[in-house]
Design brief:
Layout (H helix, E strand, L loop, with lengths): L1 E8 L4 E9 L6 H19 L10 E3 L15
Antiparallel strand pairs: 1-2, 1-3
């Protein structure tokens, strides 16, 4: 199952772009965040290949109803 993460880059004008990433299962949060970082960087490069930003201005990971960062909502 995937979750939707949003990111923004004011340098190139991307605003809360939705990116689908696999939910975090049992892996360490640092390993999962490393994968998320690469996914966001890849998406940013595809959408704005000439942007030379070294950081994103917003990264929004949903936590409502989840039992851990990156987890799926528990119903």
């Amino acid at each position: 199952m995937d979750i939707i993460i949003k990111y923004s880059c004011t340098l190139c004008g991307i605003y809360r772009r939705h990116v689908s990433v696999p939910q975090r299962e049992n892996e360490d949060v640092r390993i999962w965040m490393n994968m998320v970082t690469h996914r966001l960087a890849d998406d940013h490069k595809l959408r704005s290949p000439n942007c030379r930003a070294t950081k994103l201005d917003e990264v929004m990971i949903p936590i409502t109803g989840a039992d851990k960062i990156g987890g799926a909502p528990v119903h």
